[in-house]
Amino acid sequence: MVDSLYREIILDHYRNPRNKGTLDPADYSYEDTNPLCGDEVRIDLQVADNHVAAIRFSGRGCAVSQASASILTEMVEGKSLDDVKALTKDDLLEELGIPVSPARLKCALLGLKVLKAGIYGVDQTEDDL
Ligand code: FES
Which residue's alpha carbon is nearest to atom 4 within ligand 1? Predict the structure, then answer.
């Protein structure tokens, strides 16, 4: 029951993504692919006063990777860069709300990987998140 509610949330974000698009200019931009399947996520950020003033994501791929990126943009909008850096994969997985199998973990974490790589300026692995 609870599981199906969260599945609905993921499908809703997949069908009606929040903060979809690009920002030009952007203070931080990064994109990456899941090497296993080729799915893509790009994230653009505008920062003001050390806080996320605007965030957009774009890309294509499975429901989990795209919905997770959409949910992530809602989580970080308005947050300080320090708070964004402190976000963990568990924070995001908790927000997704459904058990993510090891095979889908890369899908679920692609957006967070891209976001952190953009802010830190270096590639991130799942272990860094
Ligand atoms: Fe490619 Fe999920 S199948 S990111």
Answer: 107
